[in-house]
Amino acid sequence: MNLRVKVAAAACVVVLVPLAASQVMAADPPEHLGEGTLVTGRTVADVGLSGSRVVASDNADHAVYETSNNGTTWTATGGSNDTKPLQLEGSSLLTFDAGTAKVGGLTFPATDEVVLGKGGKLVSHRAPSAATAEVYDVATKAKVADYAPPFAMADSTVWKVTEPGQLVGKDLSANTEKAILVASACTVGAGRVNGRWALLSGCNQLVDVNGPEAPRNLIVAADAQVGNGFTVQTASGNLLVTDLNDQSLGQRLYGPIRTAPASLSTDGSGATKIVYADPQNRPRVISLTWLAADPQQRPDTTAPVLTSASAGDRIRDNTSLSFEWAYTDPTDPNSPASGVATYDLRTQKRPNRTSPYGAWTQPAGWQGLKGTAASTTAPLGTDTCWQVRARDYAGNLSAWSTSYCSEVDGTAPGLITLRIGDRVQLGSAVFSWGYKDDTDVDSYDIVYKVASPGNPLGAWIYPPAWQKTKIRSIAWTPRLGWDECFMVRARDYLGNTTAWSAQLCSVAPQDDRALTSAGTVTRSTSTLAFQGTTSILKANGAYLTKTAEAGARIALVAIHGPGQGRVDIYHANIKIGTVSLAATTTARKVTYLPITPYRSGAIKIISTSTAPATIDGVAFLRQNP
Asked: Per residue in 557-570, pLDDT tens?
């Protein structure tokens, strides 16, 4: 579940500029509440606090000690803190000892940047030259993320301005996110998120990461620390505390403190306390009993809002359907988010594209879902539409979403192209085809049948290599006098298969030399001729003939040109037609004679003029076209 919470970047209502005590006190001096409670028994270099646990490094040798009974007993924790101030958050203690940073069994070079997150659950480590910092889970010692600075860690959440105007908190344990609208120039740095408040740099904005408080402006000094509901910073030898829960950002002073250098820390347990070193290097604890209570939550009255949904491809190439969605539970200062709780799902279907959609159905197993995905199966051709709605923990229920539909492809591919070239082939031949589908074409089947000279077409032949093949064309060298026919069909990945295509046939002519001559006939050669030879009928009545030829149409191959004569064509003693070979330019030409009933018998090509007739070949078409 991706939980995203939006907090509007409202107008600033209070401006506070506590950069120096003289500036603040000149306008309206905060009340000075004196010193914190002394923790006896030790002088300190630096201090940390978590609940009743006070940890300090010794002022003389930097050895680290801790007490939980206000100094009555101090116990050495082992090691020292001789390079950087210790950090105590929750139950986790980060020390810098002999060149090594140590926390919960994790170790890093002390010269690197090592920061313990608020609450002590996360720690970040970044080498000086690294572009990103490694974030580790202190309890498991596992690396859980990489982040480019600046960012803040609080409990198991990493906070970062991911784009201008958007502060995003990602809970690395629950893998959820919330997004908060902030001013466009804002960034967030280490230690600047604690509890419900985030103190942002660049825009000096204070935002409530839990809601419902509206943002307001706050400018603090560079050494300011953010506690749970307050900030604390040094101010002319004292500590200046600002109440973040108070709309007017009320302030108090404490001290005096040690200033060379100052050592202070907010309570790592989340309590409203501060520990600091006084001018005599003694630890003191301040209890901020005057802070205002956390702002009261107002009821969540806003239903979740759909942020994304998908049913996958509109037309699917499999029968498995899936639907995924994501909701956010929006918030504003008047309606904080309670979070998305459950989802309901419903579907409606139509069995094919010509049918209407059926009624919506709501399976019991799809009501009150905790997950954000569902799946089912559907028969071929079925179109399934999904709708989802969400309810939050306050019981607010969204309207049903728009429909997200996905159809299982139930339509066979469609033929786009089917080609074989000329019906009478005088060269190489290619049979090619093209199909399209709602998804993708998976394979093709091709069959063919042939007729040798003088014979009818045989039965369809199914070559194994041509069944369920991916090829898109077949090329072959035609055999003289053979008629060859092809058909193809296609199927998609779901098995939707087309009918067989129309058959396309191609025949190679028989050469003139295959015919017997009678009368005045001259056998010759020509670069224009099919197979390079011709037979010239030089007198009226000269002819070429061949017995036992079969077909439903005859095609004559001849040389046309100036001075050429004409011929009559007979098949089985029936005149089929007359062809004139006269033309203005000399060229080879195929002439298709009229279609006739299928018959078998002798072919006779006879000259009917005194002008020469140059015959190149003849083809018999068993199938037309």
From this structure: 999 999 999 999 99
Percent of the chain with pLDDT over 90: 84
* Contact criterion met (CB below 8 Å) for 54 and 275: yes
Written as one string, the DSSP assignment of 242-273 is EESSSTT--EEEE-----TT--EEE-TTS-SE
**CA pair distance 47, 43, nearest whole angstrom:** 10
In this predicted model, what pLDDT tens digit does every residue of 114-136 receive, in sequence order? 999 999 999 999 999 899 999 99
Which contiguous run of DSSP H or E holds residue 436?
strand 429-436
The residue behind tokens 């195929």 is: 590
Model confidence pLDDT, tens digit, residues 516-533: 999 999 999 999 999 999
User: What's 555's DSSP letter?
Assistant: E
| Res 215: pLDDT | 83
Instruction: Select the more confidently predicted residue: 447 or 13.
Output: 447
Return the pLDDT at 23: 37
Sequence-distant (6+) residues with CB within 8 A of 105 are 141
The structural domains of the chain, ordered by start, are 21-74+156-287 (no CATH), 305-408 (2.60.40.10), 414-507 (2.60.40.10), 510-621 (2.60.120.260)
Cα separation, 221 vs 101, in Å, equals: 27
- Indicate the helix (H) or strand (E) that contains 21: helix 21-27
Query: Distance between CA atoms of 274 and 547, rounded to whole angstroms?
Result: 119
| Three-state secondary structure call for residue 27 | helix
| Positive/negative CA dihedral, 374, 375, 378, 382 | positive
Higher pLDDT, 545 or 18: 545
Contact 608, 568 (CB under 8 A): yes
The C-alpha atoms of residue 155 and residue 86 are separated, in whole angstroms, by 18
> Which residues have CB under 8 Å from 190's CB, separation 6+?
115, 124, 149, 150, 151, 152, 153
> Which runs of consecutive H residues, i.e. helices, occur in 400-465?
none
The C-alpha atoms of residue 421 and residue 383 are separated, in whole angstroms, by 41
Residues with Cβ within 8 Å of residue 97, at least 6 apart in sequence: 64, 79, 80, 81, 82, 110
Closest to 582 (Cα-Cα) out of 612, 553, 562: 562
Amino acid letter at 300? D
Helix, strand, or coil (residue 59): coil
Taking the C-alpha atoms of residue 11 and residue 464, their distance in angstroms, rounded to an integer, is 77
Q: Residue 395 corresponds to which amino acid?
A: G
Buried b (16+ CB within 10 A) or exposed e, 103-117: bbebebebeebbbbb
In the chain, what is the straight-line distance between the N-terminal and C-terminal CA atoms, in Å?
64
- Percent of the chain scoring above 70 in pLDDT: 94
Q: Are 215 and 10 in contact (CB under 8 A)?
A: yes
Rg of the chain taking only CA atoms, in angstroms: 46
Distance CA 284, CA 620 (A): 115
Burial annotation 31-40 (CB, 10 A radius, 16+ → b, else e): eebeebeebe
Q: Which two tokens stand for residue 126?
A: 């970044």
pLDDT-wise least confident of 11-15, 235-239, 358-362, 402-406: 11-15
Look-up of token digits 């083809």: 619
Encoding tokens for residue 529?
A: 């001729």
CA within 13 Å, CB half, 292: 13
Q: Can you say whether the dihedral through the CA atoms of 139, 144, 148, 152 is positive or negative?
A: negative
**Which residue is listed with tokens 């804002």?**
186
Task: Report the pLDDT value the prediction gives residue 619, as an integer from 0 to 100.
Answer: 98
